[in-house]
């Protein structure tokens, strides 16, 4: 499957906002967006001055959300189509469906430092849902599901180090976590207003883009 293997900070510079793609680095002084000289990738200074068209604004919102959750274009479009079929506002449905992805939940529970790292843990079979191994990052987690780390994963220093973040920031209100047993519970499907990371995303622009 195609995947982007270039520098992830390039995405943040392009979108001019933090997409939280590199874990702790995003909160440190090393983040390129913390530098005054930071700008869009490329050497053309005119790129910073061009006025954005309506289509450009819609595209940028879609790219921000897609890249934040680590999806490819086809995956994102399929998720959008599903959101459009569910009763309610399509944009809000889209965000809640993205939040229910297993790789996102693993990231939210601090088992991984980023969503890409979470997807890797899932792919390698370290994650269990209701005591059953699940190795599909896009698996849809439901209310009441218990997400845990397997026996092999519990010995990994990487996961133990990531869990230290729990003592600093806790977990999202729709989740609960027991760091000692490495088990978390997906308490309820979050509302769009609860997802702080996407506060600056205008999902209506994404709906307009796909409605063209």
Poorly predicted regions are: none
Provide the helix percentage: 25-40%
Strand tally is 5
Q: Spatial order of the strands in the main sheet?
A: 2-1-3-5-4
Task: Quote the beta fraction.
Answer: 5-15%
Shape: globular
Helix and strand composition category:
alpha+beta
How far the N terminus sits from the C terminus, by CA atoms, comes to: 28 Å
CATH fold call of the largest domain: Ribosomal Protein S4 Delta 41, Chain A, domain 1
| CATH superfamily descriptor of the largest domain | Ribosomal protein S4/S9, N-terminal domain
Give the helix tally.
Answer: 9
CATH architecture of the largest domain: Orthogonal Bundle
Order of helices and strands: HHHHHHEEEHHEEH
How large, in whole angstroms, is the Cα Rg? 18 Å
Any idea how many domains?
2
Main sheet: strands, sense, barrel:
5 strands, antiparallel
Mean pLDDT: 86
The CATH class name of the largest domain reads: Mainly Alpha
């Amino acid at each position: 499957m195609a995947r982007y293997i270039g520098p992830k900070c390039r995405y943040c510079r392009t979108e001019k906002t933090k997409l939280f793609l590199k874990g702790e680095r995003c909160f440190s002084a090393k983040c390129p967006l913390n530098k005054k000289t930071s700008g869009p990738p490329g050497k053309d200074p005119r790129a910073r001055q061009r006025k954005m068209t309506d289509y450009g604004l819609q595209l940028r919102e879609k790219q921000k959300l897609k890249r934040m959750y680590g999806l490819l274009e086809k995956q994102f479009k399929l998720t959008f189509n599903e959101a459009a079929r569910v009763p309610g506002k399509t944009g809000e449905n889209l965000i809640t469906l993205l939040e229910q992805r297993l790789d996102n939940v693993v990231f939210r529970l601090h088992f991984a430092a980023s969503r890409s790292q979470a997807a890797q843990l899932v792919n390698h079979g370290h994650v269990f849902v209701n005591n059953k191994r699940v190795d599909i990052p896009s698996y849809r987690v439901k209310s009441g599901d218990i997400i845990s780390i397997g026996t092999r994963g519990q010995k990994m220093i990487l996961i133990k180090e990531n869990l230290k973040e729990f003592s600093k920031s806790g977990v999202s209100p729709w989740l609960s976590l027991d760091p000692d047993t490495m088990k978390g519970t997906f308490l309820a499907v979050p509302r769009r207003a609860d997802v702080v990371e996407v506060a600056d995303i205008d999902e209506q622009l994404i709906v307009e883009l796909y409605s063209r």
